[in-house]
Amino acid sequence: MRHRAICAGLTKGAMKSELAGAAMPAAVLAAALLAAPPGSHAVVDGPGDYKGNYDSPDYVTRSYSLEARVGRETDLLARAQNPPLGLPPLPVPESNPLTREKIELGRKLFFDRRLSLNGTQSCAMCHIPEQGFTNNELATAVGLEGQIVGRNAPTLYNVGYKTRMFHDARESTLEQQAWQPIVNPVEMANPSIGWVIAKLREMKDYDGLFEAAFGDRGVSMTSVADALASYQRTLLVANSPFDRWYYGDEADALDASAKRGFALFTGRGNCSSCHLIGDDHALFTDDGLHNSGTGYERAMGEPPGPKRVALAPGVFGEVAPESVAVVSGAVAGNDLGRYEVTGDVNDRWHYKTPTLRNVALTAPYMHDGSMLTLEEVVAFYNRGGVTNPLLDPRIRPLGLDAGDQADLVAFLQSLTGDYRALVLDAFVAPVGDVGSRYDDDNTAP
Amino acid sequence: MVAAEESDSRMFPYKPSFPLAPVPALVLALGCALGTAPAALAENAAETPGPVKGAIDRPQVLAPGYTALNFDPPDPGTYGLPPIADAPDGPVLATDGSNARLHDLFAGKYVVLSFIYSSCDDVNGCPLATYVLYRLYQAMQKDPELASDMRLISLSFDPQNDTPEVMRLYAENFAGKGADWRFLTTESNAVLDPILAAYDQGVNRIYNEDGENTGQISHVLRVFLIDPQRRIRNIYSVSFLHPDLVLADVRTLMQEAAAGGYRPAARKAKPPLRTRELLAQASHTPLGLPALVVPEGQELTAARIDLGRKLFFDRRLSGNETLSCAMCHIPEQGFSNNAMSRAVGMGGQSLRRNAASLYNVAWTDPLFVDGRERYLHTLAWSELLDISRMGNGSVGVVLDKLRGLPDYRGLFEAAFDGRGADMMTTGIAMASYLRTLVSGNSPFDRWRFGGEEGAVTPAAARGFELFTGRAGCASCHVVKDDQALFTDNALHDTGVGWQHSMGKEPDRQILDLGGGIRIEVDRDAVADTAERSYNDLGLYEATQDPADRWKYRTLGLRNVAVTAPYMHNGSLSTLEAVVDFYDQGGFRHPEQDERIRPLGLSDGDKADLAAFLRALTGDNLALFEADAAAAPVGVPTGSETMGPESTAPEAEIQEHTRPEP
Lengths: 445, 661
Description:
Oligomer: heterodimer
CATH architecture of the largest domain in chain B: Orthogonal Bundle
Helix content of chain B: 25-40%
Shape of chain A: globular
CATH class of the largest domain in chain B: Mainly Alpha
């Protein structure tokens, strides 16, 4: 009965665009989007449709129209040169100094769907600006033509400080990282590096851009990588309530619960032994690799019994494993984490400590996106993770009560910085679109 | 070797294991456990065991150790065997149950040590080791010097089943016959395991679902050659364990001892790298080739070529440090692989295509048989990052390794104006070496472009007329007035790919058994032994354009006589088969290139075409082979676990160069 109603609602609602903002002048709307409190505005804070009320029989889909998605440029170079409160100076490699030309070119490449084998997938389609530069709707990323990538797309906020990339830390610089998703057969799946270079050289809308940014180098293996790295390096987000309280001496920037959460985070919860907080700044990560048991649990097989499945956003049901298996794709191989890089058995199920800045924007959590909410994550660590022979000794049962856990969540929510300008800046970027891989006239202005 | 039907059951197939029975069943039992019957061997030792009736449905590829070597073993003393590590010691049990120590049993002799277990049922495992030791035993019987200075030791890694009594039954067969072969076991797994670990002899005891020991042991075959000073001097794996090679090594060590012991080769004794010759050839390309055009910023220099060559042969550049570029593009096999239709990649997985020859790759554009790559310096990274080929997880894994390896210190900086290892310098270095692989001045070139009337045979000359005339080959394999690359660098559909995709391959398949022996078998008979063969759509996979399905790049035909097998999937073994294929018009289907059509050639025409193709072999292949043979192969970084000596960086790496042919 309800099922039929939902289907009817989907059909009816699919035609509608309900956001009144579409009628506003773009500049006014952009200002409104910029000013809205964090997490409050669906256009810049999540998937582009409203998914509440799914379980209501009168549900209608509410998609936010593209007109509402207005952009506004921000000075990314200035941001990088003067990072927001709570972040250290941005390290920039000598071989790739930041320039406006490189940043802008990198942004164009980042959003260009033509950089994939069949012209459908850009970097930004897994690292979605309005979803925390990750994907709030998928536990593990989906690559070209629906292929299983296997791990959760990490946020790119503050990626410029990372000394190691990917969940298994197999890469060490943004420049070196850049080509890998582009040629990975399950991600953007390009035939080869040279193929992409040759294609970029033929795209008219790139005429002169590489030359302006890189001089004689033009389009090359290193200039493509340097441009992409330059743009990503500018995605700096801090000046959160926590930063204003801790580093900016604003006593009221945090509420009492978040302050108690901070005390637990650095004290009894011992979270900050991996999610580091420094005297002048905090990245909330040690860039190290640890075994929390998440990977171990998955490798050892799902626990028996019914599984909790999201049937629709916000609607959960318990389903027999056999029923799930019928509709679910096979999990692509076991995931052994750092072991897959080093071959050292002691590295099994070790994954990199992610930053916690802006964590409220970057659900779902863990390397496999297996946890949907911060509450689940806090409860997981309160249990002491999943016991296994290689469990990090710092992870142990914490004995936190419900109030403590709520305080920790409040603290984590206080780590959301001033990200909005970056999202609006991303909206300005041209989306190199299909039509044809060789027909460059379709690029959005 | 004779056809399968003519062999008899004395030798093979190897039977599955069964418990060793007491005498009088001993001889039979031993025969099976050893993989062959000693009595039969004594009569037929020089013969090659062959498959028997029925073996055809479960073919077993036998290790080279069972057969005659298809090359002459190097002369003893013409090469060195640097000590690898001290041979570890350990407590063992002799056949009378008495305690002994391995070191004492080495007894100052040249020892060939093999780990076996009597119920092993892998024909290329323990039975191979025992077969080779048996051949050595026979050689010792015939040679008093070997008999007095050499000892064979078989140590069981299955103490539960291989008791001293069981080992005694083995040993009885060999006692008092003029050669020394000891059979040892140990008290228990607890005593044995440290010995296995010390010898880096991994074993996996296999348990069934109920947790019971099945008695089967999974292991990697390793046989050790140990000198009188108890140093390991060679370790033989299944591919290299051969009695002739072991004997050559033993005699090399004997000569070394007579000359006063092992001395590391002097630095200047290493073969000179022929970089200057490579550079000279590249700047004045051989007759028949156009001038070499090198992209700006990638100018050829000796330092770049040397570095590129070193990278090309370095096994450490693969994810698990087992594969180098040169292991699929083998210099002695036309920088291709003559033994495999499709290349084998990381972890032994079968790839979809034949490893293309790298001769004259400087003029190839697009690259790869499906044309998916455009530049040589980016191609290097396509290979390095391909998870099924060189298998590196990331760019950083490769670069961090190169930056850390002592034997690469300063090389990038010297080749690139102070710039260290990065994606660009690594790519350009490898491209520089590849660009030097220019090969021309073939008999055809001297005849056609050099005016030497008698440089080719009349048959080859007639073949050329057909090639450029009636057969139409030259419409894709282009021959110009002053030079010829024999390719239009374009992609075409001949039908080979289509035939595979459509499952229209013939029911009978030619199986190459090695050594030039081919048999024809039912495709079904080998289907379950071959790795699954994936679909392959050629250029379509890069362009996604349906019109590009089954299009593959026209291959240059220079040196084609040394780059068998042929076609993008190596499906044709001989030039004659290729000529036949085109004579019949390829595999006919609607999308096929219209230039390919039945030719109506006579047998004589086809022989002439093949003769012409054989006249395309360049005159400088030996130079490349010798140059390649002098390149260090990159000892895996993990090998220091065998002992402190192998960590000595530069000297050690120089010593692992192969002897000059």
